[in-house]
């Protein structure tokens, strides 16, 4: 485990050193792209990936769809849980009053156990399905963003666009390199156009 930490520190140090060299040995002048936006020395920019994702209309739409599915799943689970509880109360009542034979009580108990197992299985399936859908949604949003940046690289004219977020590898960045708002506006505009 200690060797892994040392290796990670070495990789991070080399990456930072490489960025340092790229930044300070590259062309010091800012170049002008065809659109008139200036590109900082080194061609490096960053976006706050959390802001991009949470303010991106596609993410909001997909999250709302997922929340609707979650509510439907919870309603289905609650309905089946209520059926199980009614059956359990009915069984308990009949057994306590002696209204059923032992054989019938055993059959009712077995049916309740099976119903409980089905309820647990259903809960696990619904939960697994929602988790998988959330993962797919997140990948779709990230893929849309990266594809957008690749398709519009001539407009942004950067060699590197980093994604900064809490706990990411980028620990510090100059705010003049932040293109989050510009990218977010362009993403939402493109998404709304495609949505229509």
| H/E series | HEEEHHHHEH
| Share of β-strand residues | 5-15%
Rg measurement, Å: 28 Å
- Class of secondary structure makeup: mainly alpha
Q: Helical element count?
A: 6
Give the tally of β-strands: 4
Q: Roughly what percent helix? A: over 70%
3D shape: rod-shaped
**Separation of termini?**
52 Å
Strand line-up across the major sheet? 1-2
Mean pLDDT, nearest integer? 84
| Overall domain count | 1
What layout of secondary structure does this protein have?
Layout: H1 2-25, E1 31-32, E2 38-39, E3 44-48, H2 49-55, H3 57-97, H4 102-151, H5 153-156, E4 160-164, H6 180-195
Parallel strand pairs: 3-4
Antiparallel strand pairs: 1-2
Can you walk me through this structure?
The protein is mainly alpha-helical and 196 residues long. The protein has one domain (2-195). It is 72% helix and 7% strand. It has six helices and four strands. It has helices at residues 2-25, 49-55, 57-97, 102-151, 153-156, 180-195; strands at 31-32, 38-39, 44-48, 160-164. A two-stranded antiparallel sheet has the order 1-2. A two-stranded parallel sheet has the order 3-4. A hairpin with a 5-residue loop joins strand 1 (31-32) and strand 2. Helix 2 (49-55) packs parallel to helix 6 (180-195). The longest helix has 50 residues, at 102-151. The protein is rod-shaped and about 85 Å long. The protein starts with a helix and ends with a helix. The relative contact order is 0.16.
